[in-house]
Structure formats: C-alpha cells, structure tokens
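User: I'm new to structure prediction. If I give you an amino acid sequence, what do you actually give back? Let's try with this one:
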Amino acid sequence: MLPRVNPTPRWWSGAAGLAATSSLLVVTALWATNLGDSWTGAAGRLAALWSADLLLIQVVLMARIPMIERAFGQDTLARRHRWTGFASFHLLLIHIVLATYSYAAGGSLFAQFASFIADYPGMLLALGGTVALILVVITSVRTARRRLRYESWHLLHLYAYLGVALALPHQIWTGTDFIANPLARAYWWSLYALAASSVVVFRVLRPLWRTLRHRLVVDHIVPEAHGLVSVYLRGRALERLPVRAGQFFVWRFLDGPGWTRGNPFSLSGPPNGNQLRITVKQLGDGSSRVAHLSPGTSVLIEGPYGRLTAESYRGGPVTMLACGVGITPLLALLWDLPYGQGQATLIYRAREASEVAFLDEIEWLAAQRGVRLVPLIGPRARSGSWLPAEYADYSDAEALRVLSPDITRHDLYLCGPDPWTDAVRSAARTAGVPSAQVHRERFGW
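Assistant: Good question. You get back a string of structure tokens that encode the predicted 3D arrangement of the chain. For your 445 residues, that looks like this:
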C-alpha cells in the first residue's frame, strides 16, 4: 500500500510569496532608520541590502523545501530563482557604483575602488564572492547554457553558494546595519541561518536519510528504443516512499568517477511499492553512463519533485502530448489517472519510428482502458511548429482540434523539449483551451 500524499493546500503559494515580499519590506524599513547624510551612499546601501536579501531568497527557492516545492513546482521555482538572481546581481552592481561614487567625493573612482579592496575589512573576500557570482550569472545566460553540458553547468552553478559565503564577512564587518542596529543585525543573522539550514536540511540531510532508508540499487536495464534505456530499481520499504506518478528524482549512481553529479530523471512507470523505473535518453555524460550500469549499483536519490501529477487532474477526458523522452512521465500518468474507458488520448511525437518506446504498454492501455494513440512521426512541418511534415497543411491549432476533438474540455499534459512544448501551449491557447487545463513541467536547465 503506497503512502497517501495529501493535496497541496492552495494557501501555501500565497504564504511563500508574502514571506518573500515581507522580507524586502523589512529590509527597507530597517534601512530607513539610518539613512545617513549622502543620498548616493544611502541608495547604494539600500541596493546592497536588497541584493543580499534577494540572493538569500534565491538560495531558499532552490533549497527543495517541501512546502515551497509543492506549492510552485520545480519549473516555476527555477524561473523565479533565475529572475531573482539576475535582479540581485544588477542591484549588486548598482551598490558597487554608488558606494564608490559616494566615497570618492569627486576624486578618482578607480582609486577609491582600489582603496575599498585594500583598506576595508572583508572587501577582498567580497570581491571574490562577486567574481563567483559573475561566473554564475554568465553561465546562466541562455546562450552560454546551450554551449555547456548539464554536468558542467551544474558544477559551475554551485559557485553561487561560495558567493553568498564570501559576501557575509563584508556585511558583518563594515555594513552599517550590522554595526549600528541590533534589530537589523538579528534579522540578518536569522535570514542567513534560515538559508543555510534550508540547504543543509533539504539538500543534504533529507536526501541522505531517504537514501539510507530505501537503499535503492539497480536491478536490471532494458533497451526501449534507439538511444533510450529503462533502469529498473529495487530497494527497501518502497511502499513508504511518498512519490506520485509523473514526479522525478535527482539520481546519483555510485558507479565510479562522476557519481557526485546528479541528473533529474522522471519515473516512467507508476510507483507500485515494489520497484521504480526511470527511462533515460543517452545525451550528456551522465545520461550516457546509465546504459552501462551494472546490476547492484547503489543509488543516491534526491526527491521526489514535480507537480505533473494526478493532483492537477479535474476528471473527465484527458490528452497527453509527448515528444521524444517526454513520454516517460506521461506514460506513468496514463497508468495512474482515473479517467474513464476511452477518455484518454496520447499524441506521441518522434522524428523516427525507431525512437518510439513502450509500444507494448501503450497497446495494453489501449486494449484495457481505451487509450487512443496518435503517433506523429517524421521531420517537422515548419520552423516553430510542433507538427510533423504530413500535417503541413494544418495550422498548429487546427491540427490539435483534429487530433483531439473537443479539446477544450480536456486536461492537457505536455512533456518534451521546451520549444516543442511552447509551440503546443500556444496552439492550445489558440484552440481555446483554458490555461488552467494545460499542465506541463520544464525539465530543461
């Protein structure tokens, strides 16, 4: 018997947003109690305080706190984490410029900046932290991310924690709010403690405890399609693992060098308390290694994460749209959702027939539950379209209405590459499907 996972309370997202907004208001109120004489100095200090607050919010957003993760989902949190990070970085630059201008008092800005680094306690460490954050920001730009492997990007992104740590001494030793205001000092220490403890508890201790409790190991590996393999895993007390069909874990396989780099893979079958299954497309170093894992290989897990689950299902007809390896969470949902006989449609997009996986399972679902399979095979119809060439005479929205009649009454679940799912979402919007009925989760990094 799998554990019952209670629905996510609607007020959780509002409470998290209110807490983030309140933190900025508190910072502003504490700053207003000690404005100082120079407006440039005061404005620069406010920019620094907002930057530090947003940086800590950014850390908390991706600390995998269950309440926050379940309220927003990892794709939404990743976007807000990115926006918050860029805002924090720009405020940091504003702080550096205004503080230097204020202290220079008409003199050389370069000389004043050098004086900051050489003469003020903690400033050299703060400079190191700024360099670390610049590295993170540069590698977060979409153009740069496309040139990096996931494993390299993930490793570089950890420098954000170094940036936060190196900035703290400067704030403690020279920050007016730490030195002159006991209330502000208590607030900032509390905020840093919250961010640090969130990372330690939910990114380290919780995954370690769950790994030790369930002791997952590789049972066997099955090729599914060209470049696609399924990994079956067994472990202890899996019936107590609070996971839903459609969710994903971050997996670290203890098979040798490179095991520390985690990769997010969705479950491709419904959790049944006896085993778990993930299906992996061989792309980067981490995913390519999976095909060669030996039975008995131990696994570190972090999760489960994701909101692409039955919790969003309203009942009634449902259409699944999968592209490539995006079939994995949707197949799990096809097994799990309580739709009626003949109420489910699976639209499965692939470039070649050899890339289509799980035909035996899909045929069983078609025979037993009336799932209607619509394969879309071949090169795309045109740039920016989600359709294959055989539907080139249709617009994206027209094809959606043809392939899934009465689509406006359906719940839509989408999974695939971001450009493809963006095209499907746009087509669904044009076809009149309410946005509340369209469910997707980004797995891109």
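You can read the tokens as a compact description of the fold. Here is one thing that stands out. The two ends are 34 Å apart (CA to CA).
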